[in-house]
């Protein structure tokens, strides 16, 4: 893939000119059939930047407009203790933070190996959903979610299921991993309710300066037919619609589909 093309596409995206980037790719594809170009065009499709709307919650790609919320959350020790204790420090200046969030918002998932959404409820930012350490070849990533104190009890589950459906249907991910500190059992319980399974403990996996080594609890989720079947009712309750359009890699038997359809009509 020509470096000049990659650089030009990145420049167009960073200027918010996604349509122009798409047109450039269309012209390039017309000149020659190239699987890499087709894959790059897929990475520039509108859905990557389209907001995910639920009954109560909106997920949108995190960007410069969220600078104040990002700084607030990253300076709240309790929020970061539950969301991401190993997050890198934010830039000191507001200008640098805005620039960082601008790059993040318009980056391709395969460039940064991450996607971040802001959770919005009633026009106010309430937290973040992220998938990081994305491996496209293995179709997996690490799942993180965090909401501010005082957020309603249904906000995080609704946001999580919106994101999980996007990861399965649009990103074509098949497996997610989530990590938890042993002193945060509530987060693990919430993950298990979402459909994750407790997979074990990584002994002494992390080392924090001045704090010694720390274990990490591991939970995993396969975005397969079993997951979509066993969460159909709660997803319908949270998202308010009939979710029967499963990802291509999901295999759900005809009897299960008929059963789910009966539950939805009931």
Summarize it.
The protein is of the alpha+beta class and 266 residues long.
Features:
eight-stranded mixed beta sheet, globular, 8 strands, 266 residues, single chain, alpha+beta
Describe what you observe in this structure.
With about 270 residues, this protein is α+β, with helices and mostly antiparallel strands. Helices cover about 45% and strands about 25% of the residues. It contains twelve helices and eight strands. It has an eight-stranded mixed beta sheet, sandwiched between helices. Strand 1 (about 50-55) and strand 2 form a beta hairpin.
Please give the number of β-strands: 8
Beta percentage is 15-25%
Shape: globular
Average pLDDT for all residues = 90
Largest beta sheet: strand ordering = 1-2-3-4-5-6-8-7
- Please report the number of helical segments: 12
Stretches where pLDDT is under 50 for at least 5 consecutive residues are 256-266
The helical percent reads: 40-55%
Distance between the termini: 53 Å
- Output the helix-strand order: HHHEEHHHHEEEHEHEEHHH
Backbone structural class: alpha+beta
CA-based gyration radius: 20 Å
> Quick one: biggest sheet?
8 strands, mixed
């Amino acid at each position: 893939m020509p470096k000049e093309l990659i650089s030009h596409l990145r420049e167009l995206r960073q200027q918010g000119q996604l349509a122009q980037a798409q047109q450039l790719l269309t012209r390039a594809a017309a000149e020659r059939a190239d699987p890499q170009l087709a894959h790059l065009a897929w990475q520039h499709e509108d859905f990557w930047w389209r907001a995910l709307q639920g009954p109560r919650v909106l997920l949108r790609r995190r960007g410069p407009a969220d600078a104040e919320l990002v700084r607030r959350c990253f300076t709240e020790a309790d929020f970061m203790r539950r969301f991401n204790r190993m997050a890198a420090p934010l830039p000191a200046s507001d200008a640098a933070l805005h620039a960082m969030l601008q790059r993040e918002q318009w980056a391709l998932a395969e460039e940064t190996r991450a996607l971040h959404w802001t959770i919005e409820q009633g026009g106010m930012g309430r937290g973040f959903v992220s998938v990081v350490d994305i491996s496209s070849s293995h179709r997996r990533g690490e799942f993180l979610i965090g909401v501010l104190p005082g957020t309603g009890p249904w906000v995080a589950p609704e946001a999580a299921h919106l994101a999980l459906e996007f990861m399965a249907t649009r990103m074509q991910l098949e497996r997610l991993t989530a990590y938890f500190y042993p002193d945060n059992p509530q987060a693990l319980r919430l993950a298990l309710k979402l459909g994750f399974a407790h997979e074990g403990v990584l002994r002494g996996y992390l080392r924090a300066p001045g704090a010694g080594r720390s274990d990490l609890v591991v939970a995993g989720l396969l975005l397969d037919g079993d997951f979509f079947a066993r969460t159909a009712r709660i997803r319908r309750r949270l998202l308010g619609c009939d979710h029967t359009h499963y990802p291509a890699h999901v295999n759900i038997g005809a009897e299960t589909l008929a059963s789910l359809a009966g539950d939805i009509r009931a």
